[in-house]
């Protein structure tokens, strides 16, 4: 190693020690027996396909994550998180009640619905009120994410538990040869990292670094549980992975190097399974993977270090050296074979029936810059209404609910070129599906090859956006960074589709 690299490496080690990169090993030790740890539970399944009705209540509760103490939490229909909602295309009569003492909303992240049903900041539900959108579901099958989306409360309230998962189903998974037995070979896995105090209580500690990078924790919480083990049958299992963390980016891989088979992205199925070694999941993104456990061997789903943390974030030129010298990987979830579970699927499907995006030429091109002013990180804050005085914004302007930033024509396709001069930002657009065309001048990664509604932007990313549903100026769509602290801090804009 050259002397200069040695000095830089020493700096990296010093910074790592000073900023606490050691991942908590609470509940993360080696696992060889499925009975040695609590078994991972699935969120309760709320199937709306026969009734055509969905009833949710935002409520408070108390959750014991570990130890003797409980944490104050919030959720939909339960103390923390919400049920997995299974729905099909067609009419859906929705009622979302708010029993809390502050406003909430129900944003259907990944559902292609009009702005008046989208559940964004303009559709907040006041305490004691009920929101009753008469919805119609019309989209490809896939995995979506619902959560509160009240401006300047999203980060804290999602962190406290106000979110859940949606399965849009067309009833044809058996034809596709896909695992579909909920909680047995079809696992819903909600990834969250959280902070806890010495007494086992979940805390939302907010520092200057948390504001800059978004809040991250050092304990993995999967489906609201710590230290649990997922049991799978001795066959092929389906993992629906949802990044519900506020800010952490997960480069996921198997500890034993076995291949992961990508079958779906945000917007639905790929044409056929795609073998990958690593899949990167940023906040708001979803993927579905097939993993073969026919040999009976266990697997631990691992994550590499968050690329936005440490020298890999603001000082990107050191990232390669930093990651070569320090292994920042950590266990996310152990999966062990339970021989008692029924085996349904023993081979990978050949044809999933999905189609890769192939949108027509764009009618116009728009450019976006995801801006981070240093003043905001140091406590400067925003100017409000229009400009940025050193905080978060898009194209030099902080979010303002009274301003429509973009108007698009319904049925049109636009080319959006999104630049991120600092950090990586997961960019989400409400109410649309888009095609990722280029990332840093290269072809899109595997996890961005299908239909998307959220994409991780580093450098410059080019997408084609199709506007199929209306969004009025009174109930517009949002486009924003899905690092929730950045979104609340002003890195968000408003889109009307007419």
TrEMBL record:
Plastocyanin-like domain: from which residue to which, for each copy? 70-170, 215-295, 390-497
Q: Which InterPro entries match?
A: Cu-oxidase-like_N (IPR011707), Cu-oxidase_2nd (IPR001117), Cu-oxidase_C (IPR011706), Cu-oxidase_fam (IPR045087), Cu_oxidase_Cu_BS (IPR002355), Cupredoxin (IPR008972)
Gene3D superfamilies, A to Z: Cupredoxins - blue copper proteins
Q: Which Pfam families match?
A: Cu-oxidase, Cu-oxidase_2, Cu-oxidase_3
Q: Say which domain of life the source belongs to.
A: Bacteria
Task: Name any one GO molecular function.
Answer: dioxygenase activity
TM region(s), chain numbering: none
Keyword Metal-binding in annotation: yes
Region (Disordered) residue ranges read 26-45
List the keywords (alphabetical).
Dioxygenase, Metal-binding, Oxidoreductase
Query: PANTHER family in the record, alphabetically?
Result: BILIRUBIN OXIDASE, CUPREDOXIN SUPERFAMILY PROTEIN
The name this protein goes by in its record = Biphenyl 2,3-dioxygenase
Source organism: Oricola cellulosilytica
């Amino acid at each position: 190693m050259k002397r200069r690299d040695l000095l830089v490496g020493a700096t990296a080690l010093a910074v790592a020690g000073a900023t606490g990169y050691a991942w908590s090993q609470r509940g993360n030790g080696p696992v060889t027996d499925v009975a040695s740890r609590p078994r991972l539970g699935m969120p309760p399944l709320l199937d709306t396909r026969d009734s055509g009705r969905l009833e949710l209540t935002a409520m408070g509760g108390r959750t014991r994550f570990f130890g003797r103490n409980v944490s104050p939490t919030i959720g939909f229909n339960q103390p923390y998180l919400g049920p997995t909602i299974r729905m099909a295309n067609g009419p859906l009569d929705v009622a979302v009640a708010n029993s809390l003492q502050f406003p909430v909303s129900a944003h259907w992240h990944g559902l292609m619905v009009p702005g008046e049903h989208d559940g964004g900041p303009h559709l907040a539900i006041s305490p004691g009120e009920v929101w009753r959108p008469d919805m119609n579901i019309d989209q490809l099958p896939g995995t979506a994410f619902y959560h509160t989306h009240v401006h300047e409360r999203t980060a804290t309230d999602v962190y406290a538990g106000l979110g859940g998962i949606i399965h849009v189903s067309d009833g044809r998974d058996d034809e596709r040869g896909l695992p579909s037995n909920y909680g047995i070979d079809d696992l819903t896995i909600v990834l969250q990292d959280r902070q806890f105090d010495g007494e086992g209580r979940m805390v939302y500690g907010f520092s200057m670094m948390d504001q800059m990078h978004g809040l991250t924790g050092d304990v993995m919480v999967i489906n609201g549980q710590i230290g649990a083990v997922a049991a799978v049958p001795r066959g092929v299992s389906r993992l629906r992975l949802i990044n519900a963390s506020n800010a952490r980016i997960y480069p996921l891989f198997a500890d034993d190097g076995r291949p992961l088979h990508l079958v779906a992205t945000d917007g639905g199925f790929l044409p056929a399974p795609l073998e990958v070694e690593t899949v990167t999941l940023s906040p708001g993104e979803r993927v579905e993977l097939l993993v073969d456990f026919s040999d009976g061997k266990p697997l631990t789903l691992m994550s590499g270090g968050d690329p936005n943390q440490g020298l890999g974030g603001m000082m990107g030129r050191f990232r390669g050296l930093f990651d070569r010298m320090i292994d920042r990987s950590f266990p996310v979830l152990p999966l062990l074979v339970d021989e008692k579970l029924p085996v349904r699927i023993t081979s990978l499907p050949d044809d999933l029936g999905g189609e890769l995006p192939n949108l027509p030429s764009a009618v116009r091109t728009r450019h976006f810059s995801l801006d981070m002013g240093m003043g905001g990180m140091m406590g400067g804050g925003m100017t409000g209404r229009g400009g940025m005085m050193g905080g978060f914004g898009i194209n030099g302007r902080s979010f303002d609910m009274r301003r429509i930033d973009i108007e698009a024509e319904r049925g049109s396709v636009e080319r959006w070129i999104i630049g991120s001069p600092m950090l990586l930002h997961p960019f989400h657009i409400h109410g649309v599906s888009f095609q990722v065309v280029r990332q840093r001048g290269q072809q899109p990664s595997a996890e961005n090859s299908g239909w998307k509604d959220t994409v991780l932007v580093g450098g410059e990313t080019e997408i084609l956006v199709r506007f199929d549903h209306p969004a009025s100026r009174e109930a517009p769509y949002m486009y924003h960074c899905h690092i929730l602290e950045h979104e609340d801090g002003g890195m968000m804009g408003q889109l009307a589709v007419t």
